[in-house]
Structures are given as structure tokens and as C-alpha cells.
Amino acid sequence: MSESRFPFTSSPKGWFAVALSRELEPGQVLPVKAFEKDLVLFRGEDGKPALLGAYCPHMGAHLGHGGKVVENTIKCPFHAWQFDGTGGCTKIPYSERIPPKAKVRPWSIMERNGMILAWNDIEGGAPEWEVPVIPEIGSDEWTDFEVREWDIRTHSMDMAENQVDVAHFQYLHGTLDYPESEASVDGHIMRVFSKAGMGTKQGAVAGSIESTSYGFGFNTIRFKGIVETLLVTSVTPTDAEHVHVRFCFMVKKSLGAALDKGVGKAFIAEVSRQLEQDIPVWENKAFVHPPMLCEGDGPIPLFRKWLRQFFPAGTFDNINVTAESHNA
Ligand code: FES
Ligand SMILES: [Fe+2]
Predict the structure, then answer these.
(1) What is the radius of gyration, based on Cα positions, of the chain?
(2) Looking at ligand 1, which residue's alpha carbon is closest to its atom 3?
């Protein structure tokens, strides 16, 4: 297939992590690939992060490769022009006059929940909602993030759809029960509550699973049962074909639970095992819309309706792609 596997943008609207907070110290610069764009992320000496388009308006150097933080600006490695967090050029060391167009595109960002999140809207709109503060993150009662990361050749919609795809848990992941799931949507938020928990052949981990997605980029999954565990997932489109996935695991410290042993360790291993079973399916599947559903497939139609709001108006109105048309 020469075109993208999906007949719409790789980068839906919403908040997406571009780094974990702990990856960016004051004075640090990181090149970032997100939303099919090259970007530069830096943290000023005042502790505030900023995200800009990567390319310097002067002669095109990538600010993320060799750029340095000076006070609260980033200094280009090529001729030392400086840009602040709004993207404006504040200084050219060898020129009194700054060209009025010397500006780099700024991105709206939010630092919250141990992550630096960027707002993406390919139509250029301002942020329409906020990701809420998740009370467990940073709480003394919970462990810090234990992070696992993957780069996967898929679209964030396929990954998000996984949680409402109740039938695949038994057949792809080998869970013992057929999970009972209830999904509901509230604007950009989708909640999925499942009773079966993660009773697997490897042992039971939890009794109920409550997943809350704030658009496609940020999601929390609370597992309750023997030990309370929380998984914060972040899926960020990088180029036209790939997403970068961060799974941040936390466990409630009561009863001496730790992430490196016992239930915590089994939880990370089980969630990672399930994700890695999904990867070959996601990396090779075709996009089908509307899907050919049958009884027992779960709330997939609700999900396909919910996702429309994250794409330019009308994106899904005329899409009709079947497996048959891919196979023709
Ligand atoms: S290319 Fe950035 S200062 Fe010249
Ligand atoms: Fe899955």
C-alpha cells in the first residue's frame, strides 16, 4: 500500500504527551517528533517548559539538535538567535534589528500528572478541554511511575478501540472470562467499566477495570481487586505510520505492595504481555469502516461515534472500506 493505511489524519485532536516531566530538567532541550512534525521541547531556567516548531526561521537549523537554553529562551546552535517560549526571537547577538517575521510556531502545552502534554488540532484550533489532575499521581500513597515504552506501527484509534473490543480479550489475550463491559461517553471522555478483571491463565490480578479516556492521547485504567493498581497510558502519533506509547504503572503502597515484586510485578508483566499480543495485529491490519459486527462484539459502535469529534467535520461521513475492498 503506498498511501497511509488510514484514510484520515494520523493526528486526531487532543492532548498528547511529548515527554515525561522527569525527562526534562530546567535548562534541558529535547528534539521531539509528534503529529508528523519536528518539534523542540525545552525547559527554561524558571522551570517552565515550552514546545516550538523545530526549525529556526533564520536558516533552518533544528533547534533540538545543539540548541541551548539561555535563561528562558532557546539559542539556535547555528548563529545563536534566541527564541522564547512564545516562539518570538528575543535576541540576535550580531544584529541590533530583529526581523519582524523571526518567529517559530509555538504549541499549547500543559504540564500535569508527571507529563508534558501538547494540544494538537490540525485545523489550528485552541485547546477545548483540559486533562484533569489525577489524584494518585504524586500521592504518597502510591508508587512513582514505572514506565514501559513502545513504538508501534498503528493509528491511535486502533489502540483506543481495543478496550471496547470485548471479544478479543478471550481469543487474542487468553483471558479466562468473557469480560462484561459497559461503556459511556461524555463529550471527549469515554469510560469503560469491566467486571472480569484480569483473571488470566497466569493468575488473577484484579476484580474490576475502570478505564477513562480523555480523547486519544491520555487514559487512566484503575484495576481493583487484590491490590489497587493504576495504569496511565499515553499514545502519541509521531509520523504518519507510528505512535509512541508510554505505559506508566503505579500501585497503591498499602500492604507493602511494590512494583518490583509480587502483584505489582505480575501486573506489569501481564499488561505488557497483552499489549505485545496486540502489536502484530495492529501493525498488519487494514482499516475497515463501518466494521462488520455481530452480537457480542461490545460497544464498538459507540466508540466509532465518539471518535468522530477528534477529526475534521465530515471525515467519517463517506468512508466505506471493507475487508473485501482491501482484498480485491
Ligand atoms: S539557523 Fe538558527 S540562527 Fe541561523
Ligand atoms: Fe488487546
Answers:
(1) 22
(2) 79
